[in-house]
Amino acid sequence: MTQATEATLGMVGLWLLVAAGLLLIVELVLMAVWGVAMSRRMLALNESMSTQRAEIQADLERLRRAIEETKVLWQPYSRVLRALNHPLVLAVMASVRRRRSR
Q1: Which of 45, 26, 44, 22 minimizes the C-alpha distance to 34?
Q2: What kind and span of H or E run contains 86?
Q3: pLDDT tens for each residue of 12-55
Q4: E strand or H helix that includes residue 77
Q5: What separation in angstroms does the CA of 81 have from each of 43, 88, 90?
């Protein structure tokens, strides 16, 4: 090789190294910008999820209160329902039904 081609190859190699370095810096900047945008979206998503979680907890508490209220309201009827589910009462009802169907 001649000295002119070695010098040319050296300059080409140097410029390729500079171009690679610049591309690396551009990629790092893009990665930083995308990372910041992603972190903002994550914060917004976390805030939305915590708001929804609070709403769900409030709904569950309301449901628990409604169930307790229903239990209290059904207490007077519990004896009657228990009596109606007694096996002898069920047998008599079945017998009456059979007699009526004849």
Answers
A1: 26
A2: none
A3: 999 999 999 999 999 999 999 999 999 999 999 999 999 999 99
A4: helix 3-84
A5: 53, 14, 12
Q: How far apart are the C-alpha atoms of 50 and 2, rounded to whole Å?
A: 71
DSSP secondary structure of 25-58 = HHHHHHHHHHHHHHHHHHHHHHHHHHHHHHHHHH
Contact (CB, 8 A) for 83 and 89:
yes
Put simply, whether the predicted model's pTM sits higher than 0.85 gets the answer no
60-82 as b/e: b if 16+ CB within 10 A:
eeeeeeeeeeeeeeeeeeeeeee
pLDDT at 6 exceeding the cut of 90? no
- The C-alpha atoms of residue 76 and residue 81 are separated, in whole angstroms, by 10
